[in-house]
TrEMBL record:
InterPro entries: Methyltransf_25, SAM-dependent_MTases_sf
Domain of life from the UniProt record: Bacteria
Any Pfam family matching the protein: Methyltransf_25
Stated name of the protein: Methyltransferase domain-containing protein
Methyltransferase domain segment(s): 74-157
């Protein structure tokens, strides 16, 4: 059931189509739970030695914290390595983390102990299959990439949020040299296939009118060598053979130097979709 204009958008189908790779198949990580668990286990073993989050993560975090009040019981979906988790727990009365990865939850639990946070709890479950209790605020950032039952995931957010449900997604524009290469040389590029607008439309079809806050962000990628700068920034070209010299010439227009190292400054945006649930929804 939904309450808007009948546009026939079929947003869930569009979301699923965008989940496929460029060969038209679902990547293994989208369907193999053990493979996803192995990814997170290996990633988090490396993560312990890495630096602090990027500045743009802090900017998103500041906006997220503005939705949380000190007396709130908060639930976070798919916290990953905890970019927003500990700050939310430090502000709220309590924070429940729901994630399908046991490795993620173990990592966060260890982090909570190290930070002296005793108000956190952890639930090992897939969000779209979970029946969550009601919390004041329910949020998730960049955690929806693997959810095939995305409509049920949205319904669960709506039904479990007492005051606010908040969705965060980083968005485009993508690195501009790729668009230049596509336009000037006609090459196919592996552009992102899903964005916040898919979820906006899906929520509309579910009868949910969302507010949207767009955040301008910036990330600077620093490389160890010019060779690495070139290889990593041409990797999304899909052509089996192409004029590398021409593509590299376009790319080098965006080359800058940071502390003597080649770098790329990428300006992009994030979307925060948020709403106050008005009614329970069922599919």
């Amino acid at each position: 059931m939904y309450y808007g204009v009948r546009l026939g958008m079929k947003s869930r189908e569009a979301w699923m189509e965008g989940m496929k790779n460029w060969e038209g198949k679902l990547p293994e990580r989208m369907t193999d739970d053990q493979l996803e668990e192995s990814f997170w286990d290996q990633f988090l073993q490396r993560k312990t030695a890495e630096a602090e989050p990027d500045d743009y993560v802090r900017e998103i975090g500041r906006e997220l914290l503005s939705f949380i009040q000190e007396d709130d019981e908060v639930l976070e979906i798919g916290p990953g390595w905890g970019n927003y988790t500990f700050a939310a727990a430090s502000k709220a009365r309590s924070l429940t983390c729901v994630d399908s990865s046991a490795s993620v939850l173990g990592y966060l639990e260890q982090g909570a102990r190290a930070k002296g946070l005793s108000n956190m709890s952890f639930v090992h479950a897939k969000w779209e299959e979970y029946e969550p209790p009601v919390h004041d605020v329910v949020f998730g950032v960049n955690c929806y990439y693997r959810m095939q039952a995305i409509d049920q995931a949205m319904v669960n957010m709506n039904n479990s949020a007492r005051r606010l449900a908040v969705i965060g997604m980083t968005s485009g524009p993508e690195k501009p040299h790729y668009w230049d290469i596509h336009q000037q040389l006609g090459y196919k590029i592996k552009f992102s296939r899903r964005d916040y607008i898919h979820l906006t439309n899906l929520l509309y079809e579910l009868g949910i009118d969302v507010n949207c806050n767009i955040l301008p962000l910036q990330k600077t990628y620093v490389y160890e060598s010019e060779e690495q700068f070139v290889s990593q920034n041409l990797s999304a070209i899909m052509e089996p053979s192409y004029d590398r010299e021409k593509a590299e010439a376009i790319l080098r227009q965006y080359l800058v130097w940071v502390d003597g190292k080649p770098a790329y400054v990428h300006q992009f945006k994030a979307a925060l979709l948020y709403w106050k649930p008005e009614r329970r929804i069922s599919l």
